[in-house]
Amino acid sequence: MNRKQVAAALMLMSAASLANAQRATENNDTTIAKRYELGEVQVSASRNNAKVKEIPASISVISPQTIAETGMKTLSGLTATTPNVFMGDYGSKLTSPIYIRGIGSKINAPSVGLYVDRVPYFDKSTFAFDFFDIEQIEVLRGPQGTLYGRNTMGGIINVITKSPMTYQGTSLNLSAGTYGAYNVSGGHYGKVGDSFGYSLALNYRHNDGFFTNTYNNTLVDNLNSFGGRNRLIWNITKKLSVENIASYERSRQGGYPYGLLNSVTGKANPIKYNEYSYYNRDMFSDAVVVKYDAPSYEVLSTSSYQYFKDRQAIDQDFSEQSVYFVNQYQKQNMASQEAVIRSKGAKRISWLFGAYGFAQFFDNNVDAYYYSKKSYDKKAYLHDIMGYAFFHQLTINDFLVKNLSLTGGIRLDGEKDVMDYTYKVLAANGVTTNMKDTTYPAQKTLEIIPKVALSYKLGSSNIYATICKGYKTGGFNTSFERPEDTKFNPEHSINYEVGVKSPLLGNLFYGDLALYYIDWINQQITQPLPSGRGVMLKNAGKSRSRGLETSLHLLPIAGFDASISYGYTDATFTKYTQIKNGTTIDYSGNYIPYVPKHTLGIQAGKTFNFANSTILDKIKIGVIYRGAGAIYWTDANNHHQPYYSVLDGKISFIRKSIQLDLWGRNLTDTEYESYYFEMLPSKFIQTGRPMQLGVNLSVNF
């Protein structure tokens, strides 16, 4: 063991010895158990605030306690701790795809929907944002097209931040760790009677970087990020309320710690390229929510807006030579409006009707400089997407027999996609040549997205079966070299799922199990451009994914709590060929890239209470095991990351409103590949982050 591992082990053992010297009390176990009984948690993403155990779908709900205990800083923290959910680290916040049940997209539009405080995040360039002020995260696996429409084939992730109407006070959190990691966050939440609530939360995050570029002995992946969120709620009457939620994040990030693959050792050579690469992003989101609450129904209107601009500057050859360098600029304006009316109360028939519309405008520019020619390729894309939808869902309870519920839903989703494209070459002599200036014919789609589900309540258990359609829009590639690669078509899937949710052993445990089979056509696959410089989307023939996910939660007993979550995904191409250099290559039967076959998360904790101490009220000790793999990186399945695991740990010392945490991540210092790609003839690897140790201080007023 190295010195860091020894220090981590001593830290855990010393705190355990101190805690065992005290007598634990059990006074609050029953109260805590009720809070942790996840089957009773309401899920706002269901659109009708149904409880987890009542919804005929595979769902995970992550509480603020779990977010804090696991040290979750971004959505990537859901990996492994949430079954069949994987968000890799591919070098920067720009490339942050999420995969659920084998469904995801590395470039262009995502295949998993993300909502933050009712604002849709339609572009995955916005997915990697810093967590603070988070109240709850909801993960709904499987297509959610009936209620959410486009690009939710894999599922939905719904992030909810703290409301001043349910939480009041001031919080301050300070964190420091190895590799120059610092995090400062705080918020104030207040209300005036029951009519007005307000909050302001701020966050700053910094790290020096984990990886060194040996070309100039500088750290590659440094980060500076600042964010803020403001929330105002006005209950105008007992029935009518208006809420505004505004958030902003400014991120400056060094990136792309890619090392050339050593063909002898099979590992990455030291990072060694000659030009600094980075990703900068500014992002603003705002939602205005108007709610009218009548005795038998509720009306909810959400008007949202999101703006982001970014710049990616990247040494595209990742070598010591100056071959070519790329600057990519993106700017997005997105506005959406949704109106939903739904029934209230425990009735035999519950219903929901909704209408939705959005407009998304992109202004993208790509400048590639070729050192050998001393010339620029300058490409510009003006990309407009507009859409509308009407949807309905109906649930009939006691359908045919008592305790059997039938849920049916349907959505009409329309979309129009237009792109203007210009391509110019700026030569070394200063002469500009116009290569192309065109407006491509609009892509129009009209989709009907149905869903049907049966749910049967058997005592305290719920058994369900669901069939639903998934849909992801087509679009235009922003990188292409041939006319036939300009656009790609929509993809569709049918998801078959059965599951059960139930307390076990007299409510000592709460567990769930889901089995699924997904059959989809025209899957949008990431492929390299013919030149090898860049990637694009192409439609595969057919694919399928089958698997299961299960989780088991031990309700706190004698200060001990634990949970385990496991996901299995067998996602393969069933019909997929690709032509390379005039030769047809058949990838049928190969695993779909970037998707871990197994995900496993185990969390265990012990709380020691000190009833008569004037120094400490509690000590908490927690460990988290995360495992994922195997992950294949290419369509050819010629390189993969075998199953790997990391171990995290934390010890918390609590006195009234003050908490001190000692934490460690990847305590075993496991080496693994977090990313692999080929840029012919070269192959590159990004390794996972090493062991990191740190301390947190939290104070609540």
Whole-number mean pLDDT? 89
Tell me the number of strands: 44
H/I helix tally: 4
Shape summary: globular
- Biggest sheet features: 22 strands, antiparallel, barrel
The portion of residues forming beta strands comes to over 45%
Helix content: under 10%
- N-to-C CA distance: 41 Å
Low-pLDDT segments = 1-38
Structural class: mainly beta
Short account of what is shown:
The protein is mainly beta.
Which helices and strands appear, and what pairs or packs with what?
Elements: H1 3-20, H2 29-36, E1 42-43, E2 50-51, E3 58-62, H3 64-70, E4 85-87, E5 98-100, E6 112-116, E7 119-120, E8 134-141, H4 145-148, E9 155-161, E10 169-177, E11 181-192, E12 196-207, E13 212-213, E14 218-219, E15 223-235, E16 240-254, E17 259-260, E18 278-293, E19 297-315, E20 324-343, E21 349-370, E22 375-396, E23 404-426, E24 432-458, E25 461-472, E26 475-476, E27 487-488, E28 491-504, E29 509-521, E30 524-528, E31 535-539, E32 542-557, E33 560-575, E34 577-580, E35 583-586, E36 598-609, E37 618-629, E38 631-632, E39 640-641, E40 644-655, E41 658-665, E42 673-679, E43 682-687, E44 692-700
Parallel strand pairs: 6-9
Antiparallel strand pairs: 1-2, 3-8, 4-5, 6-7, 8-9, 10-11, 10-44, 11-12, 12-15, 13-14, 15-16, 16-18, 17-43, 18-19, 19-20, 20-21, 21-22, 22-23, 23-24, 24-25, 25-28, 26-27, 28-29, 29-32, 30-31, 32-33, 33-36, 34-35, 36-37, 37-40, 38-39, 40-41, 41-44, 42-43
